Amino acid sequence: MSDKPASPDTKRSWFAQLKAGLSRTSNSLTENIAGVLTKRKLDEETLDELEEVLIKSDLGVGMADRIREAVSKGRYDKGLTADDVRHVLATEVARVLEPVAQPLELEKDAKPHVILVVGVNGTGKTTTIGKLAHQFEREGKSVMLAAADTFRAAAIDQLKVWGGRVGAEVVAKDVGADPAGVAYEALERAKREGTDVLLIDTAGRLQNKGDLMAELAKIVRVLKKIDETAPHSVMLVLDATTGQNAISQVQTFQEIAGVTNLVVTKLDGTARGGILVAIAERFGLPINAIGIGEGIEDFEPFDAHDFARAIAGAGRENDAAA
Predict the structure, then answer these.
(1) Which pTM does this prediction carry?
(2) Contact, 184 vs 221, CB < 8 A?
(3) Could you tell me the pLDDT band of residue 156, with boundaries at 50, 70 and 90?
(4) Which runs of consecutive H residues, i.e. helices, occur in 7-81?
């Protein structure tokens, strides 16, 4: 995905969409913060309650501690408004997210650049692949999709639909076929055709963790028979609505597949968008993109400052110049 800057109008419309998508998260935070700040002075009890609100919003203990410290400095004898906390929240969240907000960089010498897409079933893996393919195609890159989640007919069919929508070739076999065989055939074909990007969909049945680990290990093993540097990216797709469970998913897929990149979806369907902050702070993995809708365009490179302002319910600074 290119990090080429978007036009001001595009950026503004995306920020408005992002702010609307995160409204459940920001409204919940704002209402709970306002409920705490009913006292004229800031005391330890108020700070404890504020910290509890932030932790319950899935922002993580570390972030809650830092915000508590920031708002308490020199304010014990002064009133504290929700706007004050919102400003501190946006600043601290942006500070954590800045290092991980990175575009997905394609290896210049890899043709194709192989992206192994992993995640629990239902997180929006296949839809994310479709949206990524659309972005790559829009940048003039050729894309191939591999349906290596051969456990579910719906996953294969859905990937074929996305391939048709974005004009990407899809390598697929029948339900029950060997996933590694699909991946191997796709990489062979992509090499032969000079394809720029190969996106490989995979199963996500965590209840069979041992089987899944063996399956993904085999996929990686056969890819390396053709290209020892593949896969070049292992992208984990996370569903924000799962809250704290998303953290255990990162841990599990790190162990299973050696995750290198993250995409977070369904931020518009939850009041738990703060989990993205906790994940960034804990794992430090690059977050390439976020999804806030089902549409093919509802997917953008991750911007730390836009996300921080949106989650805090704040406006975009210098909007005309952004």
Answers:
(1) 0.89
(2) no
(3) very high
(4) 8-21, 23-36, 44-56, 61-72
Task: Give the list of residues 6+ apart from residue 64 with CB closer than 8 angstroms, or none.
Answer: 51, 54, 55
CA 171 from chain centre, in angstroms, equals 25
Confidence check: pLDDT of 317 > 60? no
Percentage above 70 pLDDT, the chain: 91
Q: How far apart are CA 205 and CA 216, in angstroms?
A: 11
Cis amide leading into 179 (omega within 30): no
Q: What pLDDT was estimated at residue 22?
A: 87
Closest CA to 42 of 82, 66, 83, 71: 71
What's residue 319's pLDDT?
41
Strands 299-301 and 287-291 turn out to be: antiparallel
CB 51 within 8 A of CB 68: yes
Burial profile 10-36: b = 16 or more Cβ within 10 angstroms, e = fewer: ebeebbebbbebbbbbbebbbebbeeb
The widest CA-to-CA distance across the chain, in whole angstroms, is 71
| DSSP state at residue 314 | P
The model's pLDDT over 189-221, given as tens digits with 9 standing for 90+, comes to 999 999 999 999 999 988 778 898 899 999 999
What are the phi and psi torsion angles at 5 (to 5°)?
-65, 140
**H or E element at residue 113:** strand 113-118
Please say whether the dihedral angle defined by the alpha carbons of residues 176, 177, 178 and 179, taken in this order, is positive or negative.
negative
Could you give the CA distance from residue 104 to residue 233 in angstroms, rounded to a whole number? 9
